[in-house]
Amino acid sequence: MAHMIQRKEYLDSLISFKEKRLIKVVTGIMRCGKSTLLELFQEYLLQTGVLPEQIIAYNLEAGEYADMKSYRELYDMVTEKLLPDRMNYIFLDEVQHIADFQKVVDGLFIKKTVMCILPVPMHICYLVNLLRYYRDVI
What we know:
This protein is α/β, with parallel strands linked by helices. It has helices spanning 8-16, 34-47, 71-79, 101-109, 122-127, 130-133; strands at 24-28, 55-59, 88-93, 114-121. Strand 3 (88-93), helix 4 (101-109) and strand 4 (114-121) form a beta-alpha-beta unit. The longest helix has 14 residues, at 34-47.
């Protein structure tokens, strides 16, 4: 992996919420490093004993997801990878590209073995009332 600037304060904040049953929303202006922060957190998880199979990460800005229109497609894609007997760490980058993505997040959150982390540009949070919808924002 390419060298990344360590964002200790932000990473420590994510780590402090690791065991809490909350949907984690990382906000910021576009291209400020939200995705990089999540990569750093994934590295931390792996270094602390989390198996690679427990980390499910999608960047929905990538070309292979350009035709994905339905929240159901995303939900099915994620749930087929879930490990039923372990904590699953779900990273959905650029999730705002999927209509009704909140249904995916809510559907995953009710599962006891899922932790969702969403990096979302600040302007999108306001457009979809995400900050009101998910109150615990990092």
